[in-house]
Amino acid sequence: MALQTIPPRIKWAVDVMDVQPNDQVLEIGCGPGAGAELICSRLQTGKLFAIDRSESGVDRTKRRNAQHVEAGRLTVRQIDLATLRVPVKRLTKVFAFNVNLFWVRDCPDEVALLHERVVPGGAVYLFYEANRPELVPNIVKKASKSLVDGGFRVSIVENKAPAVIGLIARR
Fold first, then answer.
1. How far apart are CA 81 and CA 166, in angstroms?
2. Are 102 and 127 in contact (CB under 8 A)?
3. Local confidence band at 1 (pLDDT 50, 70, 90 cut-offs)
4. Helix or strand run (H / E) with residue 111
5. DSSP 3-state of 110
6. In the CATH hierarchy, which top-level class contains the domain 8-170?
């Protein structure tokens, strides 16, 4: 397989998460698998459970990360967050990049599931490309409200190049 590059925006987001070797991570919307590749490369005893609603996203992530799947560090499933029953009882981190769920509609059940599964001191990391600056205030407002209403404390991080906004929701 040809070597696939990891976009700078994904590198920055995963760096912000500060993945530790024993973290138990859920990735929502794994898409082409770049985030999974970086996260898994930092895990030793930890695991990543990656989900996507798209069959092609799941297939791409599995192909790109076959060595991590074989090593038992990565499990990938086609499912949405609303119907997910996380196999990991306690998550240390949740990662999502450009997942619209948290700002396009009310999602109290999904946020409640995350709050239940994320350990105290753990966090949900939501990142959005800020290449349409006019949308950023609405994204931040609505996603923050969803998370705060679900019991999280939210802080915001921003990177100018690449243009990414991140919401860090701590339990």
1. 19
2. no
3. very low
4. helix 108-117
5. helix
6. alpha beta
